[in-house]
Write a structure and sequence with these properties.
single chain; mainly alpha; 76% helix; 0% strand; globular
Amino acid sequence: MKINTLSIDYFILWLLSFVVLVDMINGFFVMEIDKFPISQGFKLILLILFGFRLLGTKDLLFAILLLVILQIGPVMGLIKTGDLNGFISDIVFSTKWFMVPFSYFYFKRLLKGVNFALVREKIAKVVTRSYFFVGLNLLLGFAGLGMAFYNHGYQNALGTRGFIYAGNELTILVLALAYLMAIFTFQKKAYKIYILLFLSFLLFSFLITSKTVLGGVLIVFLIPILSNFKLQIKRKWLDGIAIILFVGLPTLIFLFWYGIMKSGVVDKIRYSMIRNENDILTVILSNRNNFVQKGWKVFAEDFNWAGKFFGYGQQLHLKLSGHTAEVDFFSMLFASGIIGILCLLLLLLYWGLNARQLSMIGHYPFARSTFLFLWFIIIAANLSGHVLGSGIAGIFLGLSLAMMFIKEEANGDG
């Protein structure tokens, strides 16, 4: 019996359009009732379906090899400690690092496939529906439901994560969606929608109040502009540039200043400066420099050669150091050892070389944007953490990276 792969893709994309809602429901259970693996189960189903669609490809073999390598650390941690609960936590943690590359391989096959024209609108619906659910989630948070982003339950609580429990993943989810919607609307020359989307994501960032999302929204909306920038300036553009410089830029500065002042970000920075004795680096990195320093000491002094090379999973390192690194490169190193960080660096190099090559070939309108976005997420991953190892956001990061394979011909009017 011949399997209709297009129907399977339709089903996968239909499920993906509700992944944010499922995470909200999961967060509601965690916050209000009890932990129940709704979101994990949903994502496991998606991973199985991704794997089914990748059957017979080299990408699936590479992905399975990557998954096996990432499980070595948890197994070694179990052998060393005998902690079964820690082993299960390590399996969940290591599988999250698998989400971005596996999603990327699935979307790569989808975007390069002969059925792309048939699924293009379905992919767009996944993005727009997810945008709607994120907006709904933050609106509920603004109304006082869910959790604060910082210091939940205390007088100095700040921002909101709504019902999406993993706050850092929420920021990366917002930035991935912002990037996807920005490059689509800019490439279609729908500049009014582009500006409205920018303002809406700016509002999202003020509601969340994370430094990563506040600065990140500005950067990702600049990416399509920078990737399409040419030195030749036509005379008809001069009026537009003048309007942006004399009207748009001051308006943007005012909106950003007003949002920061009203959102409480300034008060948070002042409190952090006092708490960290005016150490600017520690404030900017939210104490991650100290987490990395302590984590490195444990890795260097307490791990033998096998632990350094393969890792012992996150839980043992967390027990010894007292805190996760929250910087992606070091989080991978401390949990999966040298072999883990090498795999991560090779993946990033693979994505970068692909994007660079496609941008030089031409006819791939999103390749250059993807290259710039990759650099952005690398920097974000090592300033805020929980980026390359994110669960729900990993799906949209995978889609964002796979966008490089869309050809102009497949875009209709380009």
